[in-house]
């Protein structure tokens, strides 16, 4: 299983993550390497714990994988939590993720409709007989020589859904070793003038898989919400280097 290299990661202040706040909702741009909720041992920093220090009644309305960055909704009261949960259950929340995948892939409203079985312990598989329905729609946004930036719209919300659905198209997210995605190294794309100091080991441009929850749209009690989260530094750096050396 892939492990995040977060030894050099400095946890930001919760207030600095907030994109929007009113009497009912807090919307944050979750950084990578931070879990949404408590793990079983309860011994690591997570968004819920940080949020409760900021606002004691805060509840996380959904979750992102630990390595995934981007939009996360938190309710400030039980009623808002209930209303947002209903919207998710009824599949009325539009979520758009951006991912960088290996290879050049032309996706135009590609619907991947493959059932996913949660095997427990963060392992999932495609299982047509026993899996739960899962659908994701993919559109290519930007092409590089060896990679593609893709928009991913999950219709359902299964664990690892985007990651495993892309893997079925032989288009694994870069750095997603669980699904055979390979990390991107600068030496791969910058053929000239790349050097390492003696004894230095090259690190990947991103030390996680390249998936970001970019946009979310929904409405509660007739009020429309629409949020976008800018790319974190590592995702933006990867795209900048691909534009410079792999276009």
Features:
247 residues; alpha+beta; 10-stranded mixed sheet; two-stranded antiparallel ribbon; 6 helices; 12 strands; disordered N terminus
Structure report:
This protein is 20% helix and 30% strand. By secondary structure, it is an alpha+beta fold. Strands 1, 2, 3, 4, 5, 6, 9, 10, 11 and 12 form a ten-stranded mixed beta sheet that branches. The longest helix has 13 residues, at 233-245. The radius of gyration is 19 Å and the shape is globular. The two termini are 31 Å apart. It comes from Sphingobacterium arenae. Belongs to the pseudouridine synthase RluA family. InterPro entries: PsdUridine_synth_cat_dom_sf (IPR020103), PsdUridine_synth_RluA-like_CS (IPR006224), PsdUridine_synth_RsuA/RluA (IPR006145), RluA_PseudoU_synthase (IPR050188). Pfam families: PseudoU_synth_2. Residues 24-167 form the Pseudouridine synthase RsuA/RluA-like domain.
Concise summary:
With 247 residues, this protein is an alpha+beta fold. It has helices at residues 14-17, 47-54, 78-89, 161-168, 186-189, 233-245, and strands at 18-21, 25-30, 59-60, 69-75, 94-102, 110-113, 116-120, 123-126, 135-143, 147-154, 211-220, 223-228.
Helix fraction bin: 10-25%
SS-derived structural category:
alpha+beta
Q: Give the tally of β-strands.
A: 12
Alpha-carbon distance between the two ends = 31 Å
* Number of helical stretches of at least 4 residues: 6
Q: Which band does the percent of strand residues land in?
A: 25-35%
For the largest beta-sheet, the strand count, sense and barrel status come to: 10 strands, mixed
Which blocks of ≥5 consecutive residues have pLDDT under 50? 1-7
Shape: globular
Mean pLDDT: 93
* Rg, alpha carbons: 19 Å
Order of helices and strands: HEEHEEHEEEEEEHHEEH
């Amino acid at each position: 299983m892939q492990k995040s290299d977060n030894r050099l990661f400095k946890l930001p202040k919760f207030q600095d993550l907030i994109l929007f706040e009113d009497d009912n909702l807090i919307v944050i741009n979750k950084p990578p390497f931070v879990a949404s909720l408590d793990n079983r041992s309860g011994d690591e920093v997570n968004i819920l714990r940080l949020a409760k220090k900021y606002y004691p009644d805060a509840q996380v309305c959904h979750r992102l994988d630990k390595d995934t960055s981007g939009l996360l909704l938190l309710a400030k009261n039980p009623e808002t939590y209930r209303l947002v949960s209903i919207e998710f259950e009824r599949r009325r929340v539009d979520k758009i993720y951006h991912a960088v995948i290996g290879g050049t892939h032309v996706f135009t409203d590609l619907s991947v409709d493959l059932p996913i079985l949660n095997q427990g312990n963060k392992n999932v598989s495609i299982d047509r007989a026993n899996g739960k329905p899962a659908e994701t729609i993919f559109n290519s946004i930007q092409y590089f020589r060896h990679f593609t930036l893709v928009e991913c719209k999950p219709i359902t919300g299964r664990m690892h859904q985007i990651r495993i659905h892309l893997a079925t198209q032989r288009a694994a997210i870069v750095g997603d070793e669980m699904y055979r995605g390979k990390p991107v190294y600068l030496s791969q794309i910058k053929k000239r003038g790349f050097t390492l100091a003696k004894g230095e080991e090259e690190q990947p441009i991103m030390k996680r898989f390249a998936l970001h929850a970019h946009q979310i749209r929904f409405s509660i009690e007739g009020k429309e919400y629409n949020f976008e989260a800018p790319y974190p530094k590592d995702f933006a750096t990867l795209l900048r280097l691909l534009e410079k050396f792999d276009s």
